[in-house]
Structure formats: C-alpha cells, structure tokens
Amino acid sequence: MDKGFPVNLTRNTNADDGGDRKITSEVDFFSERNKPSPSASHNNIKKEIISTDVKPSTSNIHVNTGLQLANTASDQSVVDDGVSSDAKTTELAHLQVELQRMNSENIKLKEMLSHVTGNYTALQMQLMSLMQKNHHTENEVVNAKAEEKIHGVDGGIVPRQFLEIGTNGTAEVDDRVSNSSSDERTRSNTPQNSLIEAGARDHIRNNNGKNGREDSPDSESQGWGPNKVQKILNSSNVAEQSATEATMRKARVSVRARSEASMISDGCQWRKYGQKMAKGNPCPRAYYRCTMAVGCPVRKQVQRCAEDKTILVTTYEGTHNHPLPPAAMAMASTTSAAASMLLSGSMSSADGIMTPNLLARAILPCSTSMATLSASAPFPTVTLDLTQNSNPIPNPNPLQQFQRPHHAPFQVPGFFQGQPQNFQQAAASLYNQSKFSGLQLSQEVGSSHLTTTQAPTHQQQQQQQPSLADSVSAATAAITSDPNFTAVLAAAISSIIGGGHANNNSNNNNNSRSAVSNFSGN
DNA sequence: CGGTTTTGACCTGCGC
DNA sequence: GCGCAGGTCAAAACCG
C-alpha cells in the first residue's frame, strides 16, 4: 500500500512499471537531447571534417551548421560513387571555406550574445538598485516613525526589546535565514525539547536572547510563526530587512489541483507529522515535512477544498536545503520562484503589502488573471490554481495539445539550459497550456484596498466558462490531476517568471535515477 | 526493525 | 484572562 504517496499516479499510469517507464523515457529523451543530431549524413560529414584536421565548432549558437553541412555531405555521398579525387578535394576545400565562414559567424554571434547578456545584466543591476533604493526610502520612513516613538513624539511607548533587536537581532535573524537548513530534527530530538524550546523561543522574542539562547541554533524559529517577523517589522530598518528575509521563508505557495489522491506528487518525500480539523472545512488538514534530507525546513499542508472535494490544495513553505531530483525541482523551483516574486513585491512596501498588479504581471506577463496572490495576514501566499477549465486561446483539440509524446516530453527548467529553442518552444507551449488549464491570477490582497480583481470562487470561475465542452473539462481535469503535469506545468511557469528565480537550487544535480526512483516510489 | 502514520496533548498568537 | 484556531510534538500503532 502506498502510504503518503499519490494513489492516482499508479492509477493514471495503470501500473507502477508504467509510471517508471514514462519517466524513464523522459530521462532518456533528455540524455538524447544532449547528443548531436543523429542524422547519418551529419555524422558522415563530421568524419570527413575531422579527417581533414578541420575542427568543427561545437557552439550551440550555430543551429544551422549541421543542416547545411549535412546537405553538403549527402551531396558528397552521391559524388563518392564514381567521381575523381580532384572533385573530392575541391569539395573538401569548399567545405573548409564554408566551415571557416561559419566559425567566423559563430564568433560574431557569440559576441552578440555576450553583448546582449551584458546589457541584460546591466539592466538587471539597474532594476535591483532601483528596488533597493525604493526599499531604502521606505526604511527611512519607518525609521523616522520609530525615532518619533523613541523620542516620545507621539507619546508612544517603545518596546525596549524591539530596539535591541534592531541592533542585536540582526545576526540572529540573518543567521536563521542563511542557515535555514539547520537541523530541526536534531533540535527536536531531545525529549523535553519541544515544549521547553517553544517557551524559550517565545522568551527570545520578548527578551531578545537574554536567556543566552539567541546564538544557539536552537533559537531558529520554525518558520511558521508570523509574529516575530511582524514585531521586528516595526523596529529599525536593519531589523526590518532581516525580518523581510525571515518573511521570505514564510511565504507560501499554494497549489490547487484536482486529484483524488491524498497528495499530489511533487517528487519529494514527505512525512506526515500532524493532522488537524480546520475551521470551516470538513476535511482535515494534513501537515507534512520534507524527509529527503535531515533538517530540510520545507513543509507543506494538504487539504481538500471545502467547496469542491476533488480539489486538493497543497501549500508549500520553505526552501529545500538539499539536492532535488528533477521531478522535485520542478515544483520546488516553482514554489521558490513564486515565493520570491511574491516577496520581492512585498519588500517594496513598508507595510508589507505587495504591489499586486506588478506581481501579477510578472508571474504571467500576458495574462490578467492566472494565479491568486494574497498578502493577507499572516502569510503572503501565491496560489497556483490548476483546476480551472478556462481556455483563453481556443483550441479545437485540447487533448492533442496536452499529449505527452515520447519524442517531445515536457522539460523541467534545468533541462532548458543550453537549449534555447527548445526552451522557448516548451515554455511557449506550456504557457499556452497553463492558460488553457485556467491558471487564474487575481489580486486579493487581504484587507488592503489595492485589490483590483476580486478573486472569484471556484464555482464562479467555472460559471464564467459555461461554453466549454465537457470533453475539454474532462481532459483538463484528467491532465491537471496528473501530478507530473502539475509539476512540469509549474516548472514552466517558473521558467516564464524568470530563470533567475526558477533555479535557486542550482546545485541540484539532475539525478535522473533518483527521479525515476522517486516517481516509482511514489 | 526501521520508517511512517495516527492522534491526543500541548503551545502560541489573537480576539474578545 | 479566557477561549479559539492553527500548528507542532511525540508516543503508540502500524506497515513492509
């Protein structure tokens, strides 16, 4: 019996070995993609070139090189049958000239690429500095307010510990942020630990480490309590910045997907550590912790939607501190990217309220409604809704669009690198697919008046698309319930959001074996 | 036997 | 201060 792993994976793939086969073929495809073109004529010309001591360029930039040479080669193979060696030599010379021309062209293209890259970097730097400047300005406003309180301008009482945290707590918070990987389990292993420590954590909040525990890794908060951050936000700019970083860990990414399984497969291994009945929902909420590495801070909550029990809402929090298999990277990078986007938006505002329009456009630039953003207390949350059936781009054959042929499977972002054309095609394709699947982006910003679009309920969203054929609904539901699709779609979204965010687990090696084992294990 | 799930108890924050 | 809700812990049960 599969415990904690999606049942519908095996259901969707008919058998466990079917699931393995699917993933294996995908991995094989990726490995194939890294090989040169299998064209026989291409191989022929390669041999010819090497035999004449002309080194072919291996640059990826020159996409057409192989084709042109291949054509030439096939021409030559015809000539080979009965033509003199002079013609052969002439042909070789011609090829050499052609190759040299292409090499020089390659160099030019490389220069262009480096130029564009440089421009991009410069622009990115400018953007960063602008954002930083903006943030700094807001900090000054906060500081001014804090100063007023310190000097009793408004008669307010300044909580002493907040000021102390501002100078002293920086290291503590930063340390927590940078050491998000600190071993929570180790910390919790001692018997009495949790209760004592819970109290100690609270004590730290109030006394700022006067009990001497602030330097201990034990002082690392669980990353789920909002209050510490909220309090620190009211102190100095340093503390605010630190708190913002701490908030980064608290950003949540919620994924709604139709699934009859108890949990969607995201490639990670999870251990259930709790279950609670949440108010207003007859379905219990399950709490999971990542067990792929000891002390991984990532947790997730899984709960069925109260309105539609076929919808599984999975809420992720935290960043993995260990290498992930590609299958896990897809979802992990997505949640990380979404969290980064969300918090980069929230960071630009002193009161923690994000700029929803900017964020919304950033997540999916061509859409006005694709994912739900919420900065309502206590946690900023991005919701990726993979349950909808809306289709802004009419597609007469949605099934065809969603099919996963073996010759062109979906890719996770890590595999896009070095394959720009494939990346663009896949991203564009998945972008359309994501639009098809009805990722809804609205701006629900808690109590703030920045709300521009009221997040529609699930029923409302369905009612907005009454004209869709049942087959489309069924296909979408079936596909979006496929955990692999969910993960890969999420990966594509993260890719669209921006490569910088998408692969924060850059040290993750693409261990295809672990991916296979994970999926088969799931 | 080791890992996972279950489940009741406990803690914390928040609103009243 | 009290009650509520969300979140976590850990012993016991369960499973392969």
SSE inventory with pairings:
Blueprint: H1 7-12, H2 16-33, H3 40-51, H4 65-80, H5 85-150, H6 160-178, H7 184-188, H8 193-207, H9 227-233, H10 237-250, E1 252-258, E2 270-277, E3 284-290, E4 299-304, E5 311-317, H11 326-347, H12 356-363, E6 371-374, E7 381-385, H13 398-402, H14 413-416, H15 420-437, E8 442-444, H16 458-463, H17 470-480, H18 483-497, H19 499-502, H20 512-521
Parallel strand pairs: 1-7, 6-8
Antiparallel strand pairs: 1-5, 2-3, 3-4, 4-5, 6-7
Helix pairs in contact: 2-20, 3-4, 4-5, 6-10, 9-10, 10-11, 11-12, 11-18, 15-18
The protein binds a DNA duplex (16 and 16 nucleotides) through α8 and β2.
Biased composition (Polar residues): 386-403
InterPro entries: WRKY_dom, WRKY_dom_sf, WRKY_plant
Keywords: Coiled coil, DNA-binding, Nucleus, Transcription, Transcription regulation
